[in-house]
Amino acid sequence: MASATDTGxxxxxxxxxxxxxxxxxxxxxxxxxxxxxxxxxxxVRPGTIHGIVGENGAGKSTLMSILYGxxxxxxxxxxxxxxxxxxxxSQAAIRAGIGMVFQHFKLVPNFSVLENVILGAEDGAxxxxxxxxxxxxxxxxxxxxxxxxxxxxxxxxxxxxxxxxVEILKALYRHADILILDEPxxxxxxxxxxxxxxxxxxxxxxxxxxxxxxxxxxxxxEITDEVSVMRRGEIVATVTTAKxxxxxxxxxMVGRKVLLHVPKxxxxxxxxxxxxEDLRVTDAQGVARLKGVSLTIRAGEILGIAGVAGNGxxxxxxxxxxxxxxxxxxxxxxxxxxxxxxxxxxxxxxxxQIGIAHVPEDRxxxxxILDFTAWENVAFGYQAAPDYQAHGLFMDNDAILRDTRGxxxxxxxxxxxxxxxxxxxxxGNQQKIVLAREIERNPVLLLVGxxxxxxxxxxxxxxxxxxxxxxxAGAAVLLVSVELDEILSLSDRIAVMFDGQIMGERLPAExxxxxxxxxxxxxxxxxxxx
Amino acid sequence: xxxxxxxxxxxxxxxxxxxxxxxxxxxxxxxxxGIFDIGLEGKMLMAAMASGAVAALSGSxxxxxxxxxxxxxxxxxIHGLASITFRGNQLISGVAxxxxxxxxxxxxxxxxxGQGGRTPPLTGEARFGxxxxxxxxxxxxxxFLGPFYGRVISGQSLLVxxxxxxxxxxxxxxxxxxxxxxxxxxxxxxxxxxxAGVSVVRLRYTAVALTGVLCGIAxxxxxxxxxxxxxxxMTAGRGYIALAALIFAKWxxxxxxxxxxxxxxxxALALRPDVIDAALPGSLTIPVSFLDALPYxxxxxxLAGFVGRAIPPRAGGQPYVKER
Lengths: 530, 324
Known about the structure:
The complex is a heterodimer. Chain A is of the alpha/beta class. Chain A is built from 18 helices and 20 strands. Chain A is about 35% helix and about 25% strand. In chain B, about 50% of the residues are buried.
């Protein structure tokens, strides 16, 4: 029977004709005492899409930076097409045929597409011939790979999806045979992501090798041929995508079993907690950010707001949280009591007094003060709470410390040290601190924005459980997220926002990502339209 | 005001606008590359002193010009070191250099010549004299254009023509060459340049050096052409006026020409209070000190942002720290 497994191994190895496009042998890299990459070896077959998954801080970005010449490895070697290659800087990476599409684009906003493409790859001291050549090449690339972008358009006027295409064009214009994409879909609508995947499949068909770094398991399953999993700076497994499952990958990433979708019973909505009518926000530049939003949330119910970032969700949270900017109109009622939408009576403090808790989208700027300790951060917003007061003017620091220790214990914050500054916790643990602060005072309404942005898979499960538990305890929850997965698995009702308006409401059981994606892109679906 | 008076005022506009123009274009290179340079003033002052002193000692305006450029380059190099290599605060570096220049120029001139911080008056070859352009005489009889050509365009110092030439040259460099593309890119988003495999540091040093050269010419012009020798604080805030003009011009070369000439015109007007008073009704007069203050008042207005929105290069003022 041993022979059967041997032939099985042969079969998987067979398609690897010729040397790997990229081979890493024993790459290690430390920053001070932190070992970001430890003895990493990967072989990427030419003409395939190879995924790299791992939690935040697993060392994916460091590894890619080494490949693109931003860092030098302390040990190990890189082979491109079987040849040992030194990559001391980006220029060397480009020469070796490596192109990189960064998570945050490296484009000059007020340059045209053409100018961005030729920057650093000009053909001579004068621009005119370079531009003419690039114009022609871009037209060819657009045709070959479905990479259509107006070459004369200014980059700042392009959509995010198109800007990403410019980055891909830049790499192809430099004759990249190996394309590295770092979290490419984080900023895209589902439709744009689909288009990107079509482009990637086209590139693969033309023999390009693609390294896809992502934390979204669905994407790995959809498009990669093989996937390497990183955990704490090491490669823990490299598997053929067709032979694995998201559950297995998640377990490999975290090192223990993880539930990708937390179990949740059906909702038992009670009284109406929040009613918003015709809410409008116009910012200081005179741009309408919210254009008449109306919605209600009942006790014991999670309303998920889906949408591409920047379609008014942030402004909705700001108004409800009591720190809206610009001109605000419309009415907000909590438990039947009308509250001011903006102005003097609308502050974070007054909102908290009536039981509105807020886990803000941007935890680094609104949720925490990173240089302050965990216990100080736990007190923020509740510094006037009776249980935090000592006699007279003073806060009872010991009480806050005790409370923080308890919160850290109950929310499994690691390390459980209240004296550490907030910035020294990982994203997931920071979020747990914010969540503990906001949830444990039993709010009637919880506002929560991007609860799992930059949070590890293991912590996501925990955070989701807590939000569901709060709902089951009878709170109303307004959940804003750009992650459709999250919206679909947590929400009891889903409202889709586009361009400052609610495009429609759906029940999770009666919709799917396609339909939501269309709504998010501003296309009112015909099937579900009321 | 008759036509010949206007011609005379326009002539001094060009003369007085020239150091502003040179300094403004100088600042344009640096700021377009993302390095704010509040030290234009100090560089000009150093150059004025160095060129005045060396021209006096050597008797050659050309050697004086070279010395002025070197002195300015030295200050540019310090600013580059502070703001590019050591990633210091660019405003503080610039202000510090201005202070140093203010004191050092007087100290050096006093040590060398003992004339109260001045350099000796320059004559003959030690100055850049006026150049008469061809046909200036022949065309002098042509109404309107003749005097304009003969007494505004012609008869200026070589450095004036050089300053004017930097305008189209800078435009061409910025918008038609690889260097210009990279220079503009590094001031907007240095990461785009870095990831394209081009050295941010080298580009920025090049830009700062160009600033040094042009400030050097501006200072040398002050001491060896506009005036005959260096005097204490002779730049009198022209570096700041040039900065205001640069913002006014929204960091573009042709607009820089018009902006600096506007400031030059105001300075030229201040030289002719009689013309203003004659234009005012009755016995109204305007204090000369008000006219003297006009360019500075306009500077404050421009810097306070009263002339439309000026969007500086996006990466301006931020040291580039490479990350991932």
